[in-house]
Amino acid sequence: MFFHSEKKLINKAKQGNKKAWLKLIKDYEKPIYHYCLRMLGNPDDAVDLLQEAFISIYKSLDSFRFDSSFKTWAIKIAHFRCIEFYRKQKICLQLDDLPETMSGSVYDCPESSLFTQKGNEQVIIAMSLLPWEQRNVVELKFFQHYTFEEIAKQLDVSTNTVKSRLYSALNKLKIQLEVS
Amino acid sequence: MSDLNKIFETWLNTAELSEENKSLLLADPIFRELYNNATHWQSQDKGYEQTQVPQWDKERTWFEKSDTKSLVFNLNWLNSAMLAMSVLLSTLVVTNTQFEVSEQGFSITFNQISKQEQQLDDLKVMLSQIQQENGLQAWKMAQQAIDTGRTERREDINTLITYLKDQRLQDQTLIKLQLNDLAEQVEHQGSTTIAQNIIPEQ
């Protein structure tokens, strides 16, 4: 089956067309997976969350009215699933008496070795060192390119809170730029 | 500092930064660090590689959706039927349809238009009569209210006058008593006071 445009693809998926839906997943799984990975710092958790996110996206597909890009809308849903995921994790960690930052990460390494990691790993480690609220803001600002106002609306906080969290995040990691 | 804050925020929101503003930011130690860190994060975004997603079960995200088309069709049919029934009922009421069941059978009669007009005229007459009566009653009530108000005001004024008269009487009585006291005092003092005032001869 050949789908001429994304809109057609989405409409077909809305009607329950399986092929259309799987095509849609193929087109958008990468950005959503990497969003999950940056937020959770763990590929296994990221894949679990990816699946949950797409289930929610499929369920909510009828409410998508093409007033934003599909990617923006899908990331928003992934964001809400991510918060739920994090809260569940936090409860488990509290019960186990472990610190808040994600433990058991494949990229678990001390801060000092941050600079020896490359590319994606450096980002994921850097993000995992931030508290959840700051990580949220950094992701939405630098990777999803939202404005302060959009971030404030998404997180249901004031713009001043968003700015304060971002500045704290920027200060937290006094990253010394590697000389390339 | 607040200017630098504004410059920094504008740059974060819009990516617009003139050379002059950039040198201002870099001249301040706090904002230099913030700017450098933010630039680093931006470069991380550009350099971030969207690697392949690990294998996962995509099929589990899909499920059969209920036949929305037939549901919509059913709802539409129901809506149309309800609309038709409403129209029918309204027509029956407006035309004053009467159903009669007798031994001979079932009959439906519609009132003639002239009868309806007569009924309408009667209603109009009744309505205007009721309106007139209401008007009359309202006028009577207003008159009553005015009269009552006048009477009450008159009574209040009379009460006030009576009160003032009483007060005046009391004041006069008090003054008389005081005068009597004074007169008695003067009588007693009389000659002795005069004797005290005589200047002895030298």
TrEMBL record, chain A:
GO terms for molecular function: DNA binding; sigma factor activity. Residues 24-90 form the RNA polymerase sigma-70 region domain. One of its GO terms (biological process) is DNA-templated transcription initiation. Pfam families: Sigma70_r2 (PF04542), Sigma70_r4_2 (PF08281). The keyword Cytoplasm does not apply. Residues 126-173 form the RNA polymerase sigma factor 70 region 4 type domain. Gene3D superfamilies: 1.10.1740.10, Winged helix-like DNA-binding domain superfamily/Winged helix DNA-binding domain. InterPro entries: RNA_pol_sigma-70-like, RNA_pol_sigma-70_dom, RNA_pol_sigma70_r2, RNA_pol_sigma70_r4_t2, RNA_pol_sigma_r2, RNA_pol_sigma_r3/r4-like, WH-like_DNA-bd_sf. Keywords: Sigma factor, Transcription, Transcription regulation. Belongs to the sigma-70 factor family. ECF subfamily. This is RNA polymerase sigma-70 factor, ECF subfamily.
UniProtKB/TrEMBL annotation, chain B:
This is Uncharacterized protein.
